[in-house]
Structures are given as structure tokens and as C-alpha cells.
Structure of Archaeal Type IV pilin N-terminal domain-containing protein:
Amino acid sequence: MSKRDRTGKTVSLFNDQRAVSDVTAVVLLIVLVIGGVGAVGASLSGFTDGLAPPPEATVQTSQEGTEMTMTVQQVGDDVDELRLTGEVEADSGDDVQFSGGDQNVSDVSVGDVYTIQNLDNVDEGSQINIVAAGNSQESVIQEVEVGPTS
């Protein structure tokens, strides 16, 4: 086979629309497979993130009148903040909150003492949840029932 014959066959291969169509289909198939593998990997990563243990902390609370003291006894490395949830919205007056004026505190360390105030603005028996938040998860670490405020 002469060099001219080989060159002619190569040129005729690319002039054949069916051959070009087959090559295009193979390239698209490879792109789809690579994209599918990436999507599966991303979804598995998101799934395993949700399997991480919830943030943990231990607090001790005591109420005296309209204020409650919360002492942090233990806090996990994954805890970003502590939050107050539950029946914390007041019918009149200020909502139940930490003394800093918010319903969450961050940069929590063992030994920190926080004051929860405005307990007189919710009914006796209302339940307040203390929640540890971190790693896109939350967990209720303590449920506290509001006692007499007078």
C-alpha cells in the first residue's frame, strides 16, 4: 500500500459523516460517565456529612426568680453556639434571651456562665430548650421548665 493510498483512506474517514458521528457519540458518552461519577461522589459526600454525630455539650441550670443561670460543664469541639428554643417568645415584653440580648451565644467554653433573662414574660411551666449547634446540625442538650418567677 502506497503512502498516497493511506492518506486517502484517512481523509475519506473524516469525510464520512457516520464516522464523525460515532466519534462524537463516544466523546459525549465519556463526558456523561465522568459527570455521573462526580455527581455520585458529591451526593455520597453530602450523605456522609449528615452521619456525623450531633454536637454535644453539658450545662447546668438553676432559676432564681425571673433569671436563670446556665453554667457550661462540657462542650464538644464541634459546637459553634448554644441557642434557646421552645417557648421563648413572650406574649408581652421581651422574649426569653441571654443577658447579651440574643437567643444564642457563640465561642462557648467550659466554665462559662450565662444568664437567661425575662422569664417573667412567659408562663410558669413553659419549656425552654437549650440547643447545641455545629457542623450544620443541632441537638437539644437540655429541656428546662420555667418555675415560679415571683
